[in-house]
Fold these 4 entries.
Entry 1:
Amino acid sequence: MARYTYGGQALIEGVLMRGRDAIAVAFRSPEGGIVWQTERLDAGFHGSRWSRLPFVRGLVVLYETLVVGTRWLVRSASLAASEEGVELGRSAVAIMLLITLAAGIGIFFLFPLVIATVTTSQIDNGLVQHLVEGLIRVVIFIGYLVLIAQAKDVKRVFQYHGAEHMTIHALEAGDPLTTAEVRKYPTAHQRCGTEFLVVVIALSIIMFSLVGRQTPVIMVVSRIVLIPVIAAVGYELLRFGARHRANPIVHIVMMPGIWVQKITTRQPTDDMIEVAIVSMEQALVADGETVPDGSATFEREPLADVEARIKAQLAADRAAEAAASTAAGGAVATGGAGPTGVVAADPASEPVAVETDRPVSGA
């Protein structure tokens, strides 16, 4: 059994597994095979002991999910679309993250504050405002998940989400990573990011109530400034809840997170489980861990090889299109349509008409 608690996230037609010192990704390529790649995480601050301190480690994981996870999500979408799969530059990822963060903070934190402030302005009890604000936040969160779950592509992502959780369950139980063994486990997991968001929403109600009813500026600033604090505390509560899930009280308190996962996870197909298993096996290898005995060895190849083939095919297609365009241009030059759209005649093959109705000079 691995000595580290592995996590992950679903991608477009793939799964990312996060290990101790590296991540591994595996996709189902447009060609039908499984491709994989690993990326080290043990450089810079992540490689220091400070990144593993309580409360700090939650922010590190949040950063990796937002930055590294978003980058691979975009790359997986490119691969699924049979594009080159070229990694986005740092500036492009930074802009995308800023827009996403701004929209998330605005919709899930500031908008509920505005609505709650307006609707409870005549009530003296500030606790009522925070409860209303929290309720609005819950409704928006659940409504958003239910809405996006209707999209066909998102449903497939949720299936891969389920495959990721089931594979982690099998690893933690010490079972071999095979389709049959993984299939035994539920799609929900106690350390899921969805459950983390549920914890964050509950914590936000408590922490924002401590701020009390202040001026609009202070309340808006407090919602933004406290987000990292809530995330850090929420991550530690999530780990605590996962370790003590056998405790009846902890089990009941953490159950809403499992309920919400009924929206964000689906039963995967066998080929999706295969992708999740490959991702987990590559993450274990990258961390120097041993893959459980009896695990499946599905055929796979490095992502770089597939991207090289796709790039070569695209270049060949462009060359063929250019050649066809050149040939068509030559045909127009030698016997194509004239300026008015009438096909120009070849003077060598057409008889010359003799004018007979012109008046004869001097008649």
Entry 2:
Amino acid sequence: MRVYLLTILLIGTALMTINSCRKKKDVMPDGEVLLPRDVAITDAEYSKVKDILVYVSTNPSQLNILTPSRNSTDKIPLDFSPMSVSISSDGNFAVVGFDAHLSYVDLSAKKVINTLNVSCEALDIVLGNNKWAYVFPKRDQWENIHCLDLTTGKETLSLGSSIYAGSKGKLHPAGNFMYVTDNNLGPSDIAKFNVREGVASSMYDSRYHGDYPVEGDLWFSEDGKRVFLKGQTVMRLSDDQEQDMVYNGTIGLDTINNTVDNMKRILSLDHSAAANRLYLLPTVIDYNSSPQSRTLPYVYVYDATNLTYLRKIAVKKNTSDLSAIEPHYVFVNAKGDQLYVITSEKAGDKVNWAIQAL
């Protein structure tokens, strides 16, 4: 009888071990991937389709492709210091924005296809599914989106309404439109641009002007039916103008009362349809300090359906002191079972960058 029970116990333990290994097969080991000293990350995006984290960095200037399933990073040298990056919906290509240039990159072949001139500093950049890139200027006041045909290299300014310098945009998951948020304007707003013909053309902005905070950045739900805004506002999206950019709730950074906190913003956010969760990095505004905002060293987790706050996760494992750590980007994989957080940490007069797998 004892032998029988022991056999069952051993088999059960073996099965648990196998299942545990199987669960972790396609993800990185939890922990920290410390980047080389002096490396600084300037922008990052993640492809759920390919399960790759693409980030651009300086010292040296390069595009990096982290493949979590292999726990390995491929590096592509760049000719200029990168400011921004955008990857295609299928995860096969990327564009990198610089001061007065952009590079079109084949992520599968791991090489730069070509480098083109653009007449602005690329604060933000969007890669369309149509072999066009859309560059958002860093400087000046009323500006246009700089639209580049990646096949010919021709640059054309967007049509219709202008944008304000510092605006940021993202391609809607359907691929036909961009949504753009204002920065450096009060009140901030969100607008829609048509990119089906290549050159971006303005369509309309939201019906709200200060009713709900926008604050200058945005992230889509995986199905493209909602947009989550830096100012904690959620809006429904639609091809029907009357139903487009309609208020749909608030992501309450006041986690006690589950309501808006006027002294907080969302720095980075990602949606997991598989887990029905929102993962975000909150920042706190402090006008008496320099800089005037600081990012909290936690990932806040929300129910994606009803926007209820659930819990927070420390951005670095196995440490009791998070005070020197600043998170910058958060991403969740397609299965919803692993987070990637890009962090920087002060160490004396140095800043060490890392990717945290949680």
Entry 3:
Amino acid sequence: MEKYPSLILLVSKPFGITSFKFTEQVKRVMKAKKAGHTGTLDPIATGLMVIALNDATRFIPYLNTDTKEYIIQVRFGVETDTGDISGKVVKKSESIPSMDEVQKKVSAFIGEVEQVPPVFSAKKVNGTPMYKLARNGEEVKAKPVKVNIYEIEVKSFKQGNLVLRVLCSKGTYMRALARDLGRALGSAATLSAICRTKVGKFSINDATYISSLKAGKTKGIVPLKDALDFPVLQLRDTLFESNNTSEKSGGSRRLVKAFLNGNSVPVRFVSVTDKDGRFLGVARIEDGAVKPEKVRPAKSVYGEVFGKSAVPGKSASGGSVHRGKNLPKNGGKK
């Protein structure tokens, strides 16, 4: 094993710590030289953090983080300056909506919506984070931003506390959603609890705790090649081959050296497999796309039960599989 392994860690952040400090804790426990994460959680937030260690940090921009899922609790009756319970109360209301009113109103927040980011947020105005301006007593006017909310599920509503599951695009503020929902219902509301449960394809169900990492347990570790959603191109050689082997393979060892030195590697054809390693055919790389050159029949790959009518992406009747109108295919990145 590498002395400083480059990998992705799925870790559950506890309440009351900043994302920066938590990432530093994970870095120390894993004895890593470098660490970074894919998205900040506020101190009051818990849940999934996707943390990259060592050389994996350079691949953070290529991880699919376009969609997020949260379980949030919205408290009706008060609105705060921060948008959550950590802030100063700026509005009170004795009007608490009914479950029917909530159910009818949440549907208005599905789709592409405009949000005004909370004043106490990392959103920048003229290069300065808004929270810094707000803490200095400066008046901050945030501009609305467009975000996508794909799903909202009402989990429970008791004694003015509403629990929701929200699937949304990156950059959506749950504090703004809580605030805006309260206003839309003629009340006041603030975010009282939040847990991030998904980031792209990564789930809290696969995450570990820092205490488990200290105990040497391996749950939550994702190899970098599995964390990326790109097709895999395998050069059939390695820098560890002997010179004789390299010569027999047509000198392809030079291609690995060229690639690692930042030089282009000429590729005309590639072998294509599915995620389980089944060979599907040969493709050519053309105009930035992988185009089929020669493919195997689907039933030869998957057997009769996975014949032509069951090729992934097709329904039994031959039509396209339907997805939500706004939900990105494959979670976002191509």
Entry 4:
Amino acid sequence: MTTKRALLLMRFGVFLLLYVALWTYTLFQGDFASWFLTYFFSFILLLLVCGSLFRLKNWQIKRDFHKARIQEGETVRLTVHFARKRAFPMGYLLMQQAMPETLGNLPGRQQVIYPFFKRSITADLAPFTAVRGKHVFPAVEAETSDPFGLMERSARLGEAVELTIYPRYFPDILMKISENSPENERNATNWTFKKNQNIHGLREFTPGDRISWIDWKSSAKTGKVMAREYENSSSSRVRVIFYGQQHPHFDFALRAAYSFARKMLEQNGEVSVAVLGENGQTFGFSRGHAKLEDIAKAFAEVAPATAEKLAEPLTSLLAQNQRTILFTPFVDPALQKAVRSSVQKQTIQLVSILDGGQMDAGTIYLPKKALALPETADGGDTDENNR
């Protein structure tokens, strides 16, 4: 910053020295051409002085993403809004938004806008493909100069902005698991929460409820469509564990675990979720959408960890007497040993990703293509294999 200021002062000083020399020459010469050059350079100097009076930091910026909740694989569009109180003339404004390293090797987004006398202006930056995780976008770099390019100025505008990109959700995850189970059962009833016959109460019918839940007698009496609520059986409690070991299939297994946990919670099941890995979290049993947002953020921010680091929390979880479905990028000998040594091994179901190697008996293997991200067709950068 000190070097830029010194260069700016040096340019202005040289220009001012030339201006004084021009006046001296004009006073001694006195012809029409000399006075024309003097007035012309006086006009240029006036523009330089006026241009330097407006500070770039007077611009207020706001960055908006195209929607509040973004899933990995989607095309992200970032819009930058510039606003100022006074309409001071400005020829151009070169802005650059540096991209977070967590998004990969993406080049910064640059754009030239021409404010002139406008008090507000909008810039739509080049789109990019969303990558799961928490990303921090640094302040915007802005640069401009006078109409003659003699005095350049730059400034950092705004504050850092955070963007959390959630894992891709596959609503048909129950069917995918059922289709690839060792028994090859062509239905997902084993992975849905069945209701028993104990009626918990009555409530007004809402969209998404089953027709079979309608209590027609109560509906006739009240004049409103009433639905029966049932108590869940004790067997509906399930713990979902994501074993986030370092492996090329890490993201595929994570999408399966997140989709399964979300689907179960949306079905109002009683679910406990353990996300094992760097920055991992564990959530107690809950129903519905009470903890769904926190669980989604945990899946979004978790990073792979070594098997040694995951061994202790995994052993602790498997020691508890709970029906468990464990998602893992691959089944290694250490994981097999931990499951077989568990006293509750009969209630543990492993789900992994099919990679063409040796398959463990009793494990459900999901193909990668069933959990792959859709290809972007609108200009976003994507790299499924390099994440």
